[in-house]
Write a structure and sequence with these properties.
alpha+beta; 3-stranded antiparallel beta sheet
C-alpha cells in the first residue's frame, strides 16, 4: 500500500509541475503578444497628425493642404533613458487621438503616452491622468533603441547618444524582458540573454 501511495504521489506531483510549467509559459506568451501589439500600435502612430481636407483660404492646391498638415515625427517621438543599462528605459509617444493610453479624453485631441517600468509592472501615464496605470505585470526590464535615418544609412542607438537627432528617428526597437508569475518551474538554473545582450543565469 505504501508503495502504491508513493507511485500515485509521484505521478500527481509530476503532473502538477508539468501543468504549472505549461500554464506559466502560456501566460508569458500571451503577455509578450500583448506588449508587442501595444508598442507596435503606439510607435507606428507616433507623430500622427489628423489631416484636414478643408481647403485653406489662401491656397487651395493639394500641395498646400498637405504642407499645412505634414506628418512630423520629432515632436511625437521622445525617448527618456534611465542613464544606465541596469535601469529600464521609458518611452513617450504622442499623436492625434481622442483618448490616451488610459482611455481618458486627450486635451486638444492629442494623446501623450509615457510607458515605463515600475515595481516590475509596465505602466502608462496618460496626459490626462495624475497617476500611471499598470498595463502588465511580471516585467523585468525594457530597453529602447531608436532608428536614426541618414540618407541610405540607419543606426539604432539609445536616447541620449551623442549625435542622435530625434527629428531623424524613423523607427524604434523595444526589448521587454518578461518573467513567469511562479518560481521553481525548472529543474535547474537557466541561462538567458537579457536586453543588453548579456548572458544571465
Amino acid at each position: 500500500g505504501l508503495f502504491l501511495l508513493a507511485v500515485v504521489g509521484t505521478l500527481f506531483l509530476g503532473s502538477k509541475q508539468t501543468y504549472r510549467t505549461q500554464a506559466n509559459l502560456a501566460r508569458m506568451q500571451e503577455n509578450s503578444s500583448f506588449v508587442l501589439d501595444l508598442f507596435g500600435r503606439n510607435v507606428r502612430e507616433a507623430g500622427y497628425k489628423t489631416i484636414s481636407f478643408a481647403p485653406p483660404a489662401a491656397d487651395t492646391s493639394l500641395a498646400a493642404k498637405f504642407a499645412a498638415s505634414a506628418l512630423v515625427l520629432s515632436p511625437g517621438f521622445a525617448g527618456d533613458i534611465a542613464g544606465t543599462n541596469a535601469n529600464p528605459d521609458s518611452i513617450t509617444v504622442s499623436y492625434d487621438s481622442a483618448t490616451d493610453c488610459v482611455n481618458v479624453a486627450a486635451p486638444g485631441g492629442r494623446a501623450v503616452n509615457q510607458f515605463s517600468i515600475n515595481a516590475n509592472q509596465l505602466v502608462c501615464l496618460g496626459n490626462s491622468s495624475a497617476t500611471a496605470q499598470a498595463m502588465l505585470g511580471d516585467v523585468e526590464d525594457m530597453q529602447i533603441l531608436y532608428g536614426e535615418s541618414s540618407g541610405n544609412d540607419r543606426r539604432y542607438v539609445a536616447a541620449g547618444t551623442a549625435g542622435l537627432i530625434m527629428a531623424n528617428v524613423v523607427s524604434a526597437r523595444a526589448c521587454v524582458l518578461l518573467r513567469s508569475a511562479d518560481d521553481n518551474l525548472a529543474t535547474r538554473a537557466q541561462t538567458y540573454m537579457d536586453c543588453n545582450g548579456a548572458n544571465v543565469t
